[in-house]
Every structure is written in C-alpha cells, then in structure tokens.
Amino acid sequence: xxxxxxxxxxxxxxxxxxxxxxxxxxxxxxxxxxxxxxxxxxxxxxxxxxxxxxxxxxxxxxxxxxxxxxxxxxxxxxxxxxxxxxxxxxxxxxxxxxxxxxxxxxxxxxxxxxxxxxxxxxxxxxxxxxxxxxxxxxxxxxxxxxxxxxxxxxxxxxxxxxxxx
Length: 165
What we know:
The chain starts with a strand and ends with a helix. By secondary structure, the chain is α+β, with helices and mostly antiparallel strands. Helices cover about 20% and strands about 25% of the residues. The radius of gyration is 14 Å and the shape is globular. It contains 4 helices and 9 strands. Strands 4-3-7-6-5-8-9 form a 7-stranded mixed beta sheet. Helix 2 (about 85-95) links the parallel strand 6 (about 75-85) and strand 7. It has a single domain (about 20-110, about 130-165), classed as Glutaredoxin. Keywords: Antioxidant, Disulfide bond, Oxidoreductase, Peroxidase, Redox-active center. Belongs to the peroxiredoxin family. Tpx subfamily.
C-alpha cells in the first residue's frame, strides 16, 4: 500500500501502482453516456491515465484542464481521466469547460481502484481514488507512473508526457 497525505494528514491506499515494464491491468469504466470504455476499446493507443478523487475539487479540475490542453498535440494517444464521480458529473464539467481532448470516465462500478492500487482506505476521502498517473505504450505496457504524494497537489505533467517520447 502507498503512504500519501491529504492536506498533510497520512492516508493509505489499497496497494501500489502497476510497475513500470508490467502490463497495465485491464479496465472497464463508464463514460458520460453510460457506455463502456475498456482497455480493449482503447487497444493500440498510448494512454495517459490521470486518476483523481473528484472533478468537484479545484486541483482535480485544474489537472483535467491541463491534460486536455496538452492532449491536443499528442499522436495516437488518449488521455483517460478516471474518478469515482458519477459519469454525469464529469460529462457536465467537460461540457461547461469545453474539454474535448480527454476521455472522462467513472470507476463507480468497477474494480479499477483496487486493480491500480489507488483506492484510499482511510482519511476523509476513504473510498475515493488517490491522485496518480499511469502512462502506457500502444501495447498496454506501463512506461511511467506517479503516485502523487499529496492528494491536494497536481501531478508532474511534464514527466508523464515525456514518457511518451
């Protein structure tokens, strides 16, 4: 389990992120229109999986905006933003913000948080996903991970996108 903090207070996750060099765990997530977004449906694409607690927080919203802006120039790459928000909330946020370069999905009825080791087990956000980034190549191999040590901080965008070079 990872030891992180939320507003300076210790928090634990259910496990660790997948290791660099390993195959990313398969996933089955829910889009804003309630359709399935799966690892199989994105096969052959490089993925930047941005994981966060809720789009209804300032840091999560900022990360979504930043990845949306940077994703516009990425070839054969899909940015997948994952939270346990209901898919309607993420879709509403993206529509209001003009976000169209990111696939926002919900893990509300999947084992994604456990499979990726990011479900927080304690603290005020227990049950939600921690802030993390997993980048895979077009074969689903993990090429970069970051478990953000403080949930209230943004991920290292430059390092995540440099892993695609």
